[in-house]
Amino acid sequence: MPGTGGTPDTAAPAAAGGEARPSSGEAAGDERRFRIYTAVVLTFGILSAALVSVLWLPFHGHASLWWIGPVLALSFLLAEQLGINVDVRSGISWTISFTEIPLVIGFFVAPFEVVLAAHLVAGISTLVVRRVSGRVLYNAGAFLLEITSAFAVAGLVQHATGTTEMTWPAALAGTLTAPLASTLLALAAVRVLRRRMRIGTALRLTGRILVVGFVNASVGLSGYLVIAGTSNAWPLVVAVFLGLSALYWAYSDLLREQRDMEALSDVSLMVARSGQQAAARPASRVDDLSGGVNASDWATIAERIKDQLSAARVVLRLRLEPTAAMTTVVAGEPLPGDGRLGEDALVRLPGSHVRHFRITEANADVTAALLDRNAQEALVVPLRSANQLLGVVEAHDRLSRWRGFGKYDVQLLGTMASHLATALDNRRLLATLRHDAYHDPLTGLLNRPGFRQVAREPLRDQDAAVLRVDLDVFSTVSDALGYTWADRMVIAAGRRIRDALGPDVPLARLEGASFAALLVGYPSSEIHAVAERLRGQLSAPYPVDRLTVEANAMVGYATPLAEDSESTDIDALLQRADVAVRATRGGEEVRAYVPSMGQIFLRRFQMVTQFRQALEEGQLSVHYQPKISLPSKQVLGVEALVRWVHPEFGKLDPDEFVPAVEAAGLIGVLTGFVLDESLKRVRKWMDEGLRISVAVNLSVRNLADVDFPAKVVDSLRRFGVPPGLLTFELTESGVMADPQKALPILQELHELGIVLAVDDFGTGYSSLAYLRRLPVDEVKIDKSFVLGMGTDLGDLAVVRSIVELGHSLGLTVVAEGVEEDIARDQLEAMGCDVAQGYLISRPLAEDRLEAWLQARTARSAGRQRETILTLLT
């Protein structure tokens, strides 16, 4: 190939030029266009060579000059092997060689057909040796056009000078035409392959090739003229040729070092850039969240290494996941057979340095491994990090020189492998960090951010449903057995959900024992059945070590609504599924979200956010329900009950807003408000000469506040109320939720002289052992038993038992929910101490309570006067 051999290479790395790598369809289209282009080049080459040979330069051979053809062919072969490879950013490679020297001499010593045949034989033989089998026809056509155009230009120059002998200007012009023709053909191939190359780059490349060609042609021409004119001048020509060769080799080494540095940088950047692109890609599957590089990225890296080493094939065997098998990526010639490589002698290499194997020098195991790869030689280097095998890089059969891979190739591959191992290790670390960012460390399932990432894409394209699953015993197990046992239960629940829904369903642990799943492709009629089946499996007992934990699960789900554009947002669906879970109660453990649920929780949200403002504006008040002594019918005290009149919602039921306030962590503020208002009322009664106690309800959160007793002492001191006129009512469940925390606080309150009462007794734990340990003074019978004891003998027996139990422990017994005379009479007959209920009075505001007390005092005074008059008469 005179001057430059234009050998287009579609596998050249596009990343070197900053262009996008073509897809498989585009690559196939490029290949078809290049085949057409090859046919055109070959056809024109054959026709032009035939026309020049027949019509213009007919062959006139001489038997004594038979040796010129083989010598020229050998000279062309030698010049090709001393060539310098140049990689162009557009994906085309050229070889700068010394072929201009034998070509310029050929103009003087051989006819057109001999030079053409010698050059064609040398060029095709070089391609065969280099195993460039896919471009032989194109290069054959290029060889024909190079020599034909060279002799045509030389002939035109001869004709212009009016001489029939070959002159040095004609030979020089013809010699420079050959590399110019080769360059133009290669630039046309760039256009055919749709690779980008700037015009400035093409012009600079053409200029440099012409300069190199001119130097080569001048050396060859000068040597021939000196030898032809001076019989003893050939040693001088040989010396000049050797000096020029040394200069070219030095330039070749410098150029190779520069190209090697660029290749190292390219490979490192490709791995880093592919990692950034993988991180930036939206994940559509669970395994996408690891951020791994896809096969095309590694194929590009393998191609870059292959081109830099001028290898026939490069094989990357990478372990992309710590526990996964090795992934094989091949660039260049495909591997024989099925393309699979086992753990053979070329893979089981100690250390991390490059090994160079030749089939003529290898042992039996290595020879068998090379034969399995259909390779004569191989460079093999393991990729290691901290003694961990990350992969193996193999380069098979160098194309550029007959001598095979050299020391520069070994050094380059070793340095490149070191960079690649570091980059690969960094990618694995980034993938681990990315995995941890999107997965729950306890269960290995997705976490909330990971679930958002995976679910976002399916929600855009098709109908889907988001399931929210809650286990209702998580906190109980945590408190009773510790978090280790609770974690085991969560892991078991995650496995049950995965088994029930299958491995392809996105599944996440949101927090605690709450899970979310995305169902795609299920008809709306089947979603409820899937949720029911899932709840049933999750509600089965959990064997944890040697224990069996009973559990219950609630499932809420939400589907996109056609009329709501926001319903395809994953956060909106998660929120709605959460609302549906919170709406599960009363035995209905599976609920679908309906818009009315959103209004309920929006109302609850408004109540919580407006609570402090309501306190400041006086929307909250305290009502009082009187309690009387059954034997004496005297008013002993009142129970303080909070009321809220909302400007938008009107009168709010305490059962609605108190749990919301408690869940928001504001129950301490509410308790403080009720306590202050109640003590203020007691102080007024004391100033009026009345001794009436007040009972305030406590929350489980109050009993967890170690500062609560100090706050109570401060309130009693501010209002000047003795502790004996203050009663705190607490539920059994509130005490038993965490007795280790509640008991010390209750003991401290009891020591202050405050009366403690167990409310709703009989509906909770009703543990006699705990009741004996609690420092309480009263028990309040739950109103459900009092209301039913007139018609239900069972309720009557429960009430009687509680009265007897309370008295046996020295406690005052209070019955709430007294609404009928018969209930009052029965309680009085049992010996119950105090009664409270609608029969006595409903909860009253302060002004109405004052009127009620005055009326009751007047009635009592009237009855007392009637009794005195009766005795006197």
TrEMBL record:
Record Pfam families: EAL (PF00563), GAF (PF01590), GGDEF (PF00990)
Keyword DNA repair assigned: no
Entries under PROSITE patterns matching the protein: EAL (PS50883), GGDEF (PS50887)
Gene3D superfamilies linked: 3.30.450.40, 3.30.70.270, EAL domain
Residue intervals of the EAL domain: 604-857
Entry's transmembrane regions: 36-57, 64-84, 104-129, 136-158, 170-193, 205-227
InterPro entries, per the entry: Cyclic-di-GMP_PDE-like (IPR050706), EAL_dom (IPR001633), EAL_sf (IPR035919), GAF (IPR003018), GAF-like_dom_sf (IPR029016), GGDEF_dom (IPR000160), Nucleotide_cyclase (IPR029787), Rev_trsase/Diguanyl_cyclase (IPR043128)
Record domain GGDEF: where: 462-595
Alphabetized CDD domains for the sequence: EAL, GGDEF
Region named Disordered: 1-27
Record keywords: Membrane, Transmembrane, Transmembrane helix
Stretches with biased composition (Low complexity): 7-27
Descriptive protein name: EAL domain-containing protein
